[in-house]
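Hi all, long-time lurker, first post. I run a small reading group and we've been trying to get comfortable going from sequence to structure in the token notation. Rather than ask abstract questions, I figured I'd post a concrete chain and ask someone more experienced to write out its structure so we can walk through it together at our next meeting. Sequence below, copied exactly:
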Amino acid sequence: MHARHPIPARICRVEETIRRSRFIATAGHAPDTDAARAFVARVKEEFPDAAHNCWAFVAGPPGSTARMGQSDDGEPHGTAGRPMLNALLHSGVGEIAVVVTRYFGGVKLGTGGLVRAYGDMARLALESLPLREKVERIRLDALLAYEHVDGFRRLLPVFEAEVVSEEFAADAAFALRLPREHEAGLRRAVADLTGGLALLEPGQD
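-- Answer (accepted) --
Happy to help. Here is the structure in token form:
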């Protein structure tokens, strides 16, 4: 369960020459498959004259194989996309796409050399990549008696919960956003506060 995990904070680019071929690795944020493919397309447009624009992405939590992709873009099968994808899956970073652009320098690297070059370029980009923390948040709707409102409000900062909206009719109603990892704790605390009389239900974003 990755309630919090590192994701790319912005685009990062590194470059190296390996046996006369110029390799450029560009890494960026890919929150979903569409964003990953759009990122790849942008980099390809930037380097249309390159021999290859190989890519890989993991568009989910770190190590997640549910939304991933790779391409050798004309390099021998399994020599580019797969080593790049392996680097991403083992990086501990989520929602990430990497494109490694190659300008051929006239010296063939061989399959082992290509696997090393593409894997190393992906790892090099990861080392330089600025990261930020992603916190998975959920919505909860709370309904409680007025006598419990003050105590309820005091609980919210403890669980990093913010009030999205509030409404006061027969009872007090609050729409909340909070980190998923705090949901169980908040539910327990509200049940204790109200003797189990408050209603907490999943909200709609």
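A couple of things your group might point at:
Residues 4-134 form a domain with the Ribosomal Protein S5; domain 2 fold (CATH 3.30.230.30).
The mean pLDDT is 93.
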